[in-house]
Fold this sequence. Notes:
The structure is a homodimer. Chain A is α/β, with parallel strands linked by helices.
Amino acid sequence: MSKIRVAVAGYGNVGRGVIAALKNNPDMEIAGILSRNPERVKQTCNDVPVMQIADMDAWLTALKADVAILCGGSKDDLPIQGPMLAAKISTVDSFDNHSRIPEYFKMMDDAAKESGHVSVISTGWDPGIFSMERTLANAFLPGSRAYGFYGLGESGGLSMGHSDALRTIPGVADARQYTHAVTDAIDKVRAGENPQFAPGDMHTRECFVVLEDGADQEAVAEAIRTMPGYFAPYKTTIHFVTGEFLKEKCSGFPHDGLVVAAGTTGNGNAASVEYRCKWQSNPEATANVLVAHARAAVRLANENRSGAFTILDIPPAYFSIHSKEELLKKFM
Amino acid sequence: MSKIRVAVAGYGNVGRGVIAALKNNPDMEIAGILSRNPERVKQTCNDVPVMQIADMDAWLTALKADVAILCGGSKDDLPIQGPMLAAKISTVDSFDNHSRIPEYFKMMDDAAKESGHVSVISTGWDPGIFSMERTLANAFLPGSRAYGFYGLGESGGLSMGHSDALRTIPGVADARQYTHAVTDAIDKVRAGENPQFAPGDMHTRECFVVLEDGADQEAVAEAIRTMPGYFAPYKTTIHFVTGEFLKEKCSGFPHDGLVVAAGTTGNGNAASVEYRCKWQSNPEATANVLVAHARAAVRLANENRSGAFTILDIPPAYFSIHSKEELLKKFM
Lengths: 332, 332
């Protein structure tokens, strides 16, 4: 059987994770890398074709890809690249701006339906696996609420978004932000209280900040603590550190999370479900999930389905390399 | 919108759980109870129609059910009732004899395809949710193995099958069996060792046994410890207790379990996923999952699908009471 050929759009952390993940999935292979700056990518990657993403007809002809995995950012890349590529090929992406998912779904659904392709949007671990676990917890325990917690381990989970936010502050040379779950809040959910939380009740934030020469430490700290949305609602700890410290102690992209819901069955018997994941590399974890969704996208396309899909619209078997017979025999 | 009308076949612990669960799902309602012994059921349940399950045409006409949830046992009831009902109506069941699932699937697929109905088989929490989590763990972490552990809490999980097995031993008046997970084994899996386990490495078994008058305690203990499959492969603890003890301390059907898989992403970064559930009432938990699958069965049937399905063949959104718009907005 011929392998599923995957074009990887973007060569950042997630894109490199996808390339590594494809090697662990024997039914798939990389067709090539699509980039806005192919010459730069070629400097570090010369064993696969690298092509200009905007030259659609050229790479569609040359790479013969079955599906493209879009590894760009949700803010600037995907709203442009998503519909552009969905007009030509089946796609998978990790669009993660939760409040704009309905709007992005519509945009991708229109493009993919018109072109007759399949676009799986907003997958990874959250949105993605966690969305599915929230939906199933609610379906199997009606009346319960599913809560998401992040950074359960001692060192917390590295938030790229919050690290980026820190780096926008004048005087900050570099920074990392670790999210910590509040243990008491998890206990309340597990106890079936279905509590009303403000964001600050569930998580705290720990910042490691390298100042620029001559920067005003107090002014930077004040700017962090009062930043709306990102830090103002949370208990925030700030450590001012050296660039060396950041390099030695804050490398890598560890993250973890928990979906937890508790309620009752029947006439008041306690019931709870939890899903937990733990990743030494957050972008590689996202990449692994994207690759399994690329398999599903191709299968859906082979059934002449078209339009946008989320993980909620796809039967779990479609993600698996195993045949229906194997799944019935070994996984049920 | 009219409610989904559910016929409940069987009035044991799971059947009563289904009746209770339907009250927590406002889009569904009970159409009636089907039993081999309607007169006996009517003694405790007189607010819904109770009909003889064998009088198919009579209850199909009278109850106008959209789907039947089959709550009988996997050994004697479902292999007969399953195909019989699938020939006339969409069905959902919790057939849980893992090694015979492929054979049962075929039998139900043939019956349901011929009649043009949908039969969702082998669902609940294991097989069911756990089957799905095993499949997804393997798809998202290729090369990892998913392990199932049961009885993680201090008092363990009540196994009906093992309790039944104890009661078949001459001299045993009544008994309960609690399964305990071996904590060290879980730790090995979490550490990414993907170990090879014998069944006895993962679980121990704790028995509470009430003897019949004059029974030979040593002979009963020997019969338990040497029972193939059920107890011989496990470290087994036996407590001989009074009927009063059993009634006071061993009532209810608590159970819990864990699916856990650990592996790596990319070039060797550690990654693990876990799903845990905890039920004060095991049969009610199974019932809750069955009811959500009845919703999915009706939706599949409304799309003119037919044949047998497992949880692996159904998009998660089909289990939810919420609309596609709500799911995109609130659950993604």
